[in-house]
């Protein structure tokens, strides 16, 4: 796997301190973004009050949610000394989407028996996203798991059958049912769910250090929990399961519980053929 951050120290997009701290950051400094960086040996990192684990080489990742505060602080500590580095995020504007025709059962509050099922499924997803492995794939260049027409974007507020829903936390790519979806980066499968109430067929890939990909509304999952996969390897097929009006892939990126925009790591799609 090619590590891309090692050559990025002290570039325009980086914050550079004295050589004994050596902090570098890569990524879009905006709400919804994943930033990846490196510190010198022996330096510890905190985001606010939260400890951030680093690799033996000092690489790390931090993520900022849809509505994250625009003023963030990284605290670097070494041998009893500390440096605070401000990270200023840009504010994003989000679209409002009105979607009609979704199954009404997925819009109205479900009965208690269904709520119990939903809580169980959500708890399983949370556990998978809490994975804090030593995989280094989070440092690599990501690729689109599928190309096609973008039918939904991160952060948009969706109104289902006239009722406001939660913001959308993924990017949707519309393709016919059965179209193959590939791994956006190396990873290990931490969750396979066949038919979630809301997300339908669901797959989560761990990329290491809290970074994971979630793919939902799948018609079929081609891998098993615990399986290691390589970037570009087929992992699933497009579907319209769960709360969906048509076949598409909903790809989501997380840093632990923070819901991020995959476009901040993969870039805009070059082809939608």
- The helicity comes to under 10%
Q: What's the N-to-C terminus distance?
A: 28 Å
Total helices: the number is 2
Q: What letter string, H or E per element, gives the SSE order?
A: EEEEEEEEHEEEEEEEEEEEEEH
How would you describe what is shown here?
- Helices cover 8% and strands 39% of the residues.
- 38% of the residues are buried.
- A hairpin with a 2-residue loop joins strand 6 (71-78) and strand 7.
- It is built from two helices and 21 strands.
- The model is unreliable at 1-19 (pLDDT under 50).
- The chain starts with 23 loop residues before the first strand and ends in a 7-residue tail after the last helix.
- Strands 9, 12, 14, 15, 16, 18, 20 and 21 form an eight-stranded antiparallel sheet that branches. The protein has a four-stranded antiparallel sheet with strand order 4-3-6-7, with no helix packed on it.
- The chain is mainly beta and 273 residues long.
């Amino acid at each position: 796997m090619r590590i891309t951050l090692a050559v990025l120290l002290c570039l325009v997009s980086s914050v550079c301190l004295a050589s004994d701290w050596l902090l570098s950051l890569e990524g879009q400094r905006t709400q919804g973004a994943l930033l990846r960086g490196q510190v010198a040996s022996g330096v510890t990192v905190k985001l606010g009050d939260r400890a951030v684990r680093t690799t033996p080489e000092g690489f790390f990742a931090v993520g900022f949610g849809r509505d994250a505060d625009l003023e963030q602080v990284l605290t670097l500590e070494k041998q009893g000394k500390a440096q605070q580095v401000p990270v200023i995020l840009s504010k994003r504007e989000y679209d409002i989407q009105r979607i009609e025709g979704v199954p009404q059962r997925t819009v109205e509050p479900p009965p208690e028996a269904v709520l119990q099922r939903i809580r169980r499924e959500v708890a399983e997803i949370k556990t998978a996203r809490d994975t804090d492995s030593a995989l280094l794939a989070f440092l690599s260049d990501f690729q689109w798991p599928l190309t096609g027409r973008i039918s939904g974007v991160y952060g948009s507020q969706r109104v289902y059958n006239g009722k406001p829903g939660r913001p959308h936390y993924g990017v949707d790519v519309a393709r016919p049912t059965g179209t193959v979806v590939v791994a956006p980066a190396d990873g290990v499968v931490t969750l396979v769910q066949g038919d979630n109430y809301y997300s339908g067929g669901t797959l989560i890939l761990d990329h290491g250090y809290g970074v994971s990909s979630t793919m939902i509304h799948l018609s079929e999952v081609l891998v098993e929990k615990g399986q290691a996969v390589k970037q570009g390897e087929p992992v699933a097929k497009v579907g319209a399961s769960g709360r969906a009006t048509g076949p598409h892939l909903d790809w989501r990126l997380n840093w632990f519980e923070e819901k991020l925009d995959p476009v901040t790591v993969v870039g805009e799609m070059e082809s939608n053929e």
